[in-house]
Amino acid sequence: MRLIIMGPPGAGKGTQAAGVADQYGIPAISTGDIFRANVSEGTALGVEAQRYMDAGEYVPDEITNAMVRDRLAAEDCKPGFLLDGYPRTLAQVEVLDGILADAGTPLDAVLVLTVDSEELVQRLLARAQVEGRADDTEEVIRRRQEVYSEQTAPLIAVYGERGVLVSVDGMGEVDEVSARISAALAGVTT
Ligand code: ADP
Questions:
Q1: Which of 27, 144, 157, 161 is buried most deeply by CB count within 10 Å?
Q2: Which secondary structure element, helix H or strand E, spans residue 53, and what is its range?
């Protein structure tokens, strides 16, 4: 199963990605997590990525694309994968298309979580208190939402035209959303 999970910051992608990946026995690949791991290890990639992340901006495509290309080449991606936080720009969609075409492995579905915008800010502010992520301040959250609307929301129409979109209501309890996702993915044939 090859999947993408999309949605605005705070939609619950990371939380739901873990459950879906478990269910299908595939790795959940979060570009945000990979960047954060590099930041805490102080790698060259982390140093470069951090200035964009702290401002709520996207890390440049060249950096992100190279990182994902490497990750998808790993052995554990053979049975499939769930991408969380990638692609986020039209240029990233093109690169991913190329990677998948070269491997002869098409995408099965693009899962989109929908959540009200006020609920999103509340969730992110609550997460800031628990996890203390540097990019969870109100100002940076607003900027991440803008960047999402400008650069990432248009990808939904692109995948919609390809007929691979699976839209799921992301409001409510984590378990309720998980159940909706399972039901929606049960209809996807691989
Ligand atoms: P969010 O909760 O905002 O969806 P993530 O943990 O997925 O957060 O990502 C955090 C930050 O990492 C983003 O704001 C961005 O700076 C960087 N990032 C993650 N994925 C990408 C990507 N595909 N392209 C560019 N930057 C990315």
A1: 144
A2: helix 44-55
In testing the pocket of ligand 1, which one of 144, 147, 150 has its CB within 8 Å of the most ligand atoms? 144
Domain count, the chain: 1
Q: Is 155 in the pocket of ligand 1 (CB under 6 A)?
A: no
pLDDT (tens digit, 0 to 9) for every residue of the chain, 190 residues total? 999 999 999 999 999 999 999 999 999 999 999 999 999 999 999 999 999 999 999 999 999 999 999 999 999 999 999 999 999 999 999 999 999 999 999 999 999 999 998 899 889 989 888 888 888 888 898 899 999 999 999 999 999 999 999 999 999 999 999 999 999 999 887 6
Structural contact between residues 56 and 8, judged by C-beta atoms closer than 8 angstroms: no
Q: Is 185 domain-assigned?
A: no
- Which ligand 1 atom is at minimum distance from the Cα of 92? 23
Cα 83 to averaged position of ligand 1 atoms, centre (Å): 12
The whole domain housing 70 covers 2-179
Let me know if residue 33 belongs to a domain. Answer: yes
Tell me whether residue 184 is in a domain.
no
